[in-house]
Amino acid sequence: MSAEERKQGGSEAATEAESAGDDSEVLDDEPRNILSGLIAQLRKGMDLHRVTLPTFVLEPRSMTERITDFMSHPQLIHDTSLKDDPVTRFVDVLRYYLSGWHIKPKGVKKPYNPILGEHFRCRWQFQDGTEALFVSEQVSHHPPVSAYYYASPENNLTVVGEMRPKSKFLGNSAATVMEGFTHIEFTNRPGEEYVVSLPTVYVRGILFGTM
């Protein structure tokens, strides 16, 4: 195939991806063949964490950083602890939890598996002058377990949790069971704690259809 043909093929793939929506990604022939060869080696129910995946299906970051996606809008609960109505506080926490699920990469991407002891740190600086700190660490490799801690003392907020993803190949789909819990606490309200879990994530259309 000439360079011009490859360029034209890439343009057609890009156009097809755009027409399918921002969440779709159309693979060229080479990565599609690699993926097909990989899938041929899989067996239904196989643990995908023990499978070496090609880089084009991976995000350019690891799970220790990916966790921060779930904390994209912490300002939604910065003033929650100051509200007297417990139902209002509950709704605020629920809204904050759901807000972390709107960020996702284009197409179907899996973050890199962190190595044991790997950690990620970052800081938020908010418009009101307050800030928050985050640290996560891979505390187990087999099975993979990521622990994380978020704190914004000026906003009376701490978020502590662990994530234990388990991925399974299911034929034309794959599932990631997100075991573990997140504990949300307001430091000025002792004894009040919100414990949330993560949903099971499915990827369908691996062999037939659009991922």
Note down, in words, how this protein is organized:
By secondary structure, the protein is an alpha+beta fold. It is built from 4 helices and 10 strands; from the N terminus they run ααβααβββββββββ. The strands form 2 sheets. Strands 3, 4, 5, 6, 7, 8, 9 and 10 form an 8-stranded antiparallel sheet that branches. Strands 1-2 form a two-stranded parallel ribbon. The protein is elongated, with a radius of gyration of 20 Å. The two termini are 27 Å apart.
SSE topology:
Blueprint: H1 3-20, H2 29-40, E1 58-62, H3 63-66, H4 86-99, E2 110-112, E3 119-125, E4 131-140, E5 145-152, E6 157-169, E7 173-179, E8 181-186, E9 193-197, E10 201-204
Parallel strand pairs: 1-2
Antiparallel strand pairs: 3-4, 4-5, 5-6, 6-7, 6-8, 7-10, 8-9
Keywords, please?
4 helices, Oxysterol-binding protein, eight-stranded antiparallel β-sheet, two-stranded parallel ribbon, 32% strand, disordered N terminus, 10 strands, Oxysterol-bd, sterol binding, elongated, Oxysterol-bd_CS, 211 residues, alpha+beta, OSBP_sf
